[in-house]
Design brief:
Helices cover 32% and strands 19% of the residues. It has 282 residues and is α/β, with parallel strands linked by helices. It starts with a strand and ends with a helix.
Length: 282
Amino acid sequence: MVNIPAIDSFLLSGKIYPCDKSIDKNKVLIINSATAVEKKLYHHYASYMAENGYNVVTYDYRGIADSRPKKLRGFKASFTDWGQKDFSGVISYTKSKFPNHKIVILGHSIGGTIIGMTPKSTEISGIINIGAQTAYYKDWAKEQRTKIYILWHIVFPMITNLFGYFPGKRLGLLEDVPKGVIKQWNNRRKHANMQKQMEAIGITFYYDVCESKLLTLGVEDDPIGTKPAIMRIHDLFKKSDKEFKIIQLSEVETTKIGHFGFFSRKFKHTLWAKTLTWYDTI
């Protein structure tokens, strides 16, 4: 484990997966996690990429898993902090650690959304986003929309206000989450245009200065990262050389992938291999 300073000096818990120098492709992959997910979820994928010539950096956002303080109640953090401060710091750290390497990103869910929240996005050469969306409820799959809305925008905020943070681990729902993240995400629920909503309160975005190659991936059975949902982030990258694809379950002979299943080892020789091939073109 390593300590990675955010740009405001907050120390994030990170892990480096170095590749063997004999196969080093002079690229370093940063993995941006989903909300309430610790970096361990990406361990096997990170190991796979390291075995194939990529140095890999994973990390926990402030307030999540190994980057959380002992007392989360009263801790200040938002998902824009994750992009503006944490991700910016991780890019700076990565450039200092691997000065001659191209930086490529894998953004999972919110991890893809926050890429446009740092001016350092200009230092990225390639991005694969998986299920990256803006939490606008009308984008979700119709058959699960009501259930997700009740959970995300009624139950979760209510529990968060009671505890002063979201006690995800206690409820068996991934990691604990700072109150500010839940509040900010909840405020997204009825606004189709995230950028317009956030800029109205003084938050600056940098999607339009990012010129990296972009591959946006959705999954057929992901009720959150539907095509309309992930296109909202995809379309914000105005200057990127970009492509878009929805992964069909039949492509990998499976009945379920959902929002998190992409990182299962059973997709090592299919989905993972395709991302490796794409990154190799950068």
